[in-house]
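Changelog-linked ticket: alpha-D-galactopyranose example.
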Amino acid sequence: MTIPAHLRKNPAKALAALLAVSVLAACGTGKTVKEPAAGQAAAAAPAAVLAPVPPMGFNTWNKFGCNVDEKLIRETADAMVETGMLDAGYKYLVIDDCWQVERGADGRIIADPQRFPAGMKALADYVHGKGLLFGIYSDIGPKTCAGRPGAAGFFDIDAATYAEWGVDYIKVDWCHCDDLDAPTEYAKFRDALRRSGRPIVLSICEWGRNDPWKWAKGVGQLWRTTADIGDSWDSVVWIVGANSRHADAAGPGGWNDPDMLEVGNGGMTFDEYKTHFSLWAIMAAPLMAGNDLRAMTEETRSILLNKEVIAVDQDPLGAQGRVVIERGYGGQVWMKPLADGSRAVAFVNYSKGDLDQYVRWAQIGLPPGPAKVRDLWAGKDLGIHTDMGRHYNERFQVKVPSHGVVMVRIWPEPARPGN
Ligand code: GLA
């Protein structure tokens, strides 16, 4: 049985995850699910093993587009280790479009020999040698979005080739597929991956065109819900609105994907990037960095490496946060329940000036009484705040800068007699 590298180090966790899969599968379908024999475990139901929490990593597209080569990938792998990205949880290093040039007479896909002279197997080995996992990109149709060879007609050959190279993650696009049925095609691709014998995360990228939140769980581990992100505040606002509608679909094993991060690419302010990252975390989105990791400013590092915000994203309960208060004048309050009973709360300000924002415990599902509050961007405890559910002035209040965010985590204090 092949077990993903991150679980290989921890056999107990791997076994627990596999057992969880059979339980989940049985609950979800209402059918009796046989415990998979050891050799079939990966083929039977790898979803929750592969993505019990939203995948984290780096993808080349947002910053580098088609300008990818093995030097960039090796240097990025080095940077992921040196900057602490890997330690913070970013483990997939994914090459997006344009690594492939043609197919050989045998049907096998060929990596650009100029840009990847050592070949993909050697590159995957290098990435694995750093303790990272290796990802690649393809398309369901005959061509990728950048016009490179797609997978149509070659699902099994490609899956076998990728398994041989040591691929751990594949993003599969939807260009040139207008006449095809997305649930059918992606299920065929999943089955080809399973036949390859290697557990490979399947990142479905059909931009939310075919309602993937209705069918993609159990097919892939993440599915795009929107068109491509751009490095602008307007793009973030638009994507958040669209992705927020599908919170019910997300959970351990399958995640809504509002696209990769733009943090550090230069088109937004520090506050806007913090809001972008906070919202991705509170929506339990995959966190795929999309900036040049070899040249990060201190500000960019402070966002991508904020472990307390990352912990909100990676929380094992796996709930996608929701808007609990929508204020007509540009304020929103988001809440994500966390596994330890605490709540992550993000106060977002879409308006042009500062905004006072507040919340009552009842609005975030907490009982009346005292609760401990911690500011996740300031990295500071804000002390105990008591809301007995009575007076107006008990509400918890913060000041949020324009296009900015205040993100806190709130733990209810243990109930005391008399409360
Ligand atoms: C599509 C995808 C992007 C990227 C490009 C590559 O637009 O949505 O994320 O993969 O194709 O060509």
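Closing comment: Example verified and attached. The first strand starts at residue 56 and ends at 59. Confidence is low (pLDDT under 50) at residues 1-45.
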